[in-house]
């Protein structure tokens, strides 16, 4: 598609870059709230944190819907419509996962969160920063890919660290936790946090696919 005569002569709509950037900013805000939530967890404040994260999730949904609408009404796009849509959907998935983490904490209402929950939420926050930096570079993709590839590599490294945190947590949990109900509660919460980092890494994979096609 990038070699078509029409695409060379027709200016591509730049509006998708700021929209994707807005989605990455929402992901950062949601992850920041989640990190704060895990570090200050109490029964009294849990619902309020979830409310704030849910507000970010709704903002993300609105931006995702706008991107979809723009894709259906724009003649020439900077990348294939399928790639823009996939990237938008995965960014939305990251925000949804963060919201799901907060929701599980409120619903399960554990006595306490394990200390390593903060390790995972910090890694999750770091991953959203990497995503935002990579999205920032998309509009100069054909000039250089060095920075984007570095950010995608960092996302992969963060996800590996999150795997290690989760696996060590599971080992410790089954060795030390004697309350079966609490065990299931915190296991489900930590599982969802780890899956959020997986989803963030998948955003990097989509961006790498775009690089292969267009760089």
Structural overview:
- Helices cover 81% and strands 0% of the residues.
- The chain is built from seven helices and no strands.
- By secondary structure, it is mainly alpha-helical.
- Residues 1-11 have low confidence and may be disordered.
Summing up helix and strand content along with how strands pair, one would put the structural category as mainly alpha
**Termini Cα gap:** 13 Å
Helix content: over 70%
The biggest beta sheet reads:
none
Compile the SSE list and pairings.
Layout: H1 5-9, H2 16-39, H3 43-73, H4 81-108, H5 116-136, H6 146-176, H7 180-214
Q: Which structural traits does this protein have?
A:
single chain; 215 residues; mainly alpha; globular
Short description:
The chain has 7 helices and no strands.
């Amino acid at each position: 598609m990038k070699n078509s005569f029409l695409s060379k002569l027709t200016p591509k709509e730049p509006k998708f870059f700021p929209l994707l950037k807005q989605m990455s900013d929402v992901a950062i805000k949601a992850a920041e709230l989640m990190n704060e939530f895990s570090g200050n967890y109490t029964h009294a404040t849990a619902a309020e944190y979830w409310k704030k994260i849910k507000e970010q999730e709704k903002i993300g949904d609105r931006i995702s819907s706008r991107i979809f609408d723009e894709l259906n009404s724009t003649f020439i796009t900077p990348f294939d419509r399928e790639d823009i849509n996939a990237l938008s959907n995965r960014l939305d998935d990251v925000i949804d996962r963060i919201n799901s983490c907060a929701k599980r904490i409120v619903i399960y209402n554990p006595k306490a969160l394990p200390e390593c929950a903060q390790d995972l939420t910090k890694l999750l926050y770091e991953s959203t920063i990497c995503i935002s930096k990579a999205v920032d570079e998309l509009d100069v993709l054909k000039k250089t890919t060095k920075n984007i590839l570095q950010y995608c590599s960092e996302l992969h490294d963060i996800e590996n660290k999150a795997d290690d945190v989760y696996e060590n947590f599971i080992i410790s949990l089954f060795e030390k936790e004697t309350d079966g109900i609490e065990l299931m509660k915190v296991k489900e919460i930590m599982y969802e946090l780890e899956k959020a980092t997986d989803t963030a890494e998948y955003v990097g994979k989509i961006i790498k696919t775009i690089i292969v096609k267009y760089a």
